[in-house]
Amino acid sequence: MSRFSLIHAVREPSGNARESAPLLVLLHGVGSNEQDLIGLAPALDSRFFVVSVRAPITLGHSSYGWYPVQFAPEGPIIDPDAAERSRLLILKFVDELAESYNIDAKRMFLMGFSQGCIMSIAAALTAPRKFAGIVGMSGRLLPGILSKLAPDDQLRGLPVMVVHGTQDSVLSIDFGRAIRDALEKLPVDLVYREYAMGHNVSQQSLNDISLWLTTRLNSPDWRSLPKE
Question: Which CATH architecture is the domain 8-224 placed in?
């Protein structure tokens, strides 16, 4: 039996293999798979041990999701129990990665697109001390997640970058701005940016994300900084 809870693809880091590498976990959107976001790896800092994860729910051939969702006129309708199971599974999986690969457990990052963004933010806001930083692309807040937040003293200083397209026809810019508005009320270190793009990752947004991630790698661990 595999020692991992989730199927995944890997991009090995460059440099000294004897040194523990920072980890970047990529979570894809609904209907995709682990081969999707791994294509972004060449644009990201080569020091990262990149893991692109397959979501646990099979939707079709090479099509997976973190929870079932229906897009209705009033907005997305989800299965909250399945979403909660996936949130807990992600937290378990990152621990498995740290135990099984040559990973620096103090430098684990999450980065997700669409439904993967939703799950990345949900995992980070409920277990912030696990992560060195979070990137959320073109998503929204998981309904009910604000009732499960970690305490402020654990969230304080958590680096979060959120990007969204002003022309997104799947999850409108209103969802991105709702994330911004909610996180601005929390003691996290938030960077929020909008781009003239649809429900996709533009080259400009990817460049900015890559720079932000590299800056975080070169910065002191936020968890070791004095808390105000």
Answer: 3-Layer(aba) Sandwich (3.40)
